[in-house]
Write a structure and sequence with these properties.
With about 200 residues, the protein is α/β, with parallel strands linked by helices. It has a single domain (about 5-195), classed as Spore Coat Polysaccharide Biosynthesis Protein SpsA, Chain A, CATH 3.90.550.10. The chain is built from 7 helices and 9 strands; from the N terminus they run βββαβαβαβαββααβα. It has helices at about 30-40, 55-60, 80-90, 110-120, 150, 160-165, 190-195; strands at about 5-10, 25, 30, 45-50, 70, 95-100, 125-130, 135-145, 170-175. Strands 5-4-1-6-8-7-9 form a 7-stranded mixed sheet, sandwiched between helices. Strands 2-3 form a two-stranded antiparallel sheet. β4 (about 45-50), α2 and β5 (about 70) form a beta-alpha-beta unit. The protein starts with a strand and ends with a helix.
């Protein structure tokens, strides 16, 4: 079985939400971050979550879950800091690393498994990126182990975009249902629209 670790970057400041923390917003009866982490754990993978600090309120909502929490003291540098610290903590037997954003409530366990299976079917030689049903690139993305060292050189707040661009010739894209792969909620307006369309959640 292909060993894929799942990285959930959750060390950002959530500045666009004002005085609310998007990752603590309730979805399906629990904070969003806990729900995302639970779906990741349900795949059977090792899960790594980056946080601003281990005493941060986000850590409390993950209590009792069998995952690794990684503090990111330089989180002010943006997403790159989370990815650098997470990459350094990947298990030595990991053949791939799935980057799973923490603010995407519509991604299901089945979605994650579908992307992971595509990576396994490609023998770990390719990057695998989820898309919307219509083909818009989104998340999650699985990176093969030979690209792990590249995460150590990331800077700024663009995440792993430079790695994706440099390796687009190795890309496999997997369409997921609807907009599951492209719905992220990082502003109050985005939350308002999403809640209007998902009143039962």
């Amino acid at each position: 079985m292909t060993q894929i670790a799942i990285v959930i970057p959750a060390a950002g400041a959530s500045r666009r939400m004002g005085d609310r923390d998007k990752l603590l917003e309730p979805v399906d009866g629990m904070p969003l971050l806990r729900g995302v982490a639970g779906r990741a754990l349900a795949t059977g993978s090792e899960v790594i979550v980056t946080l601003p600090g281990l005493s941060h309120p986000r850590a409390a909502v993950l209590e009792g879950l069998d995952l690794r929490l990684i503090a990111v003291p330089d989180t002010h540098e943006g997403m790159s800091a989370s990815l650098r610290h997470a990459a350094a903590a990947l298990p030595p037997d990991a053949e791939g690393a799935m980057i799973l954003p923490s603010d995407m409530p519509d991604l299901t366990e089945d979605d994650l498994r579908q992307v992971m299976q595509a990576f396994a079917d490609a023998s770990g030689e390719f990057l695998v990126q989820a898309t919307s049903a219509e083909g818009t690139p989104g998340h999650p993305v699985v990176f093969p182990a030979d690209l792990f060292p590249a995460f150590g050189a990331l800077t700024g707040d663009e995440g792993a975009r430079s790695i994706l661009q440099a390796n687009r010739h190795r890309m496999i894209r997997v369409p997921l249902p609807g907009d599951n792969a492209v719905t992220d909620l990082d502003t109050p307006d985005a939350w308002t629209r999403w809640r209007a369309n998902n009143p039962d959640r």
